[in-house]
């Protein structure tokens, strides 16, 4: 799956998601885009999913129109050490991804 890692997450997280093509918003030059602009850029560039910690994004934007899956990570902080325990569940959620769906991934 072609995934984008939102600017609010550590870029090193992309290396922790095996089996998928993961780019970062910073690498794509999209770090300063608004949420609506980001979703439009993703759609235009063939991305299928967004990994973010922004739990408000799904309520602010039309996910169905964007035709992507949004994975919202909920951890104590956005530090890599706190996000790593979420990865098994994130990978499971990715395997069931459907466009227009928001999947929340929470810690134990």
Q: CATH class, anyone?
A: Alpha Beta
The largest sheet, given as strand count, sense and whether it forms a barrel, is: 5 strands, parallel
Unreliable segments of 5+ consecutive residues: none
The appropriate CATH architecture is 3-Layer(aba) Sandwich
Q: Helix tally?
A: 6
Give Rg in angstroms: 12 Å
Tally of extended strands? 5
Summarize the structure.
Helices cover 32% and strands 21% of the residues.
Q: Can you give a write-up of this model?
A:
This protein has 108 residues and is an alpha/beta fold. The protein has a single domain (2-106), classed as Rossmann fold (3-Layer(aba) Sandwich), CATH 3.40.50. It has six helices and five strands; from the N terminus they run ββααβααβααβ. A five-stranded parallel β-sheet has the order 2-1-3-4-5. The longest helix has 10 residues, at 35-44.
Which keywords apply here?
5 strands, 6 helices, alpha/beta, Rossmann fold, single chain
Annotate the secondary structure layout:
Layout: E1 2-5, E2 21-24, H1 25-28, H2 35-44, E3 49-52, H3 57-60, H4 63-66, E4 69-74, H5 80-83, H6 87-95, E5 102-106
Parallel strand pairs: 1-2, 1-3, 3-4, 4-5
């Amino acid at each position: 799956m072609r995934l984008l890692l939102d600017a609010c997450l550590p870029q090193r997280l992309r290396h922790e998601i095996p089996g998928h093509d993961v780019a970062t918003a910073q690498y794509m030059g999209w770090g300063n885009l608004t949420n609506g602009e980001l979703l439009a850029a993703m759609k235009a560039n063939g991305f299928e999913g967004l990994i973010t910690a922004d739990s408000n994004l799904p309520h602010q934007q039309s996910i169905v129109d964007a035709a992507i899956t949004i994975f919202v990570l909920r951890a104590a902080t956005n530090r890599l050490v706190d996000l790593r325990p979420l990865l098994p569940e994130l990978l499971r959620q990715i395997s069931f991804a459907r466009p227009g769906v928001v999947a929340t991934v929470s810690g134990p």
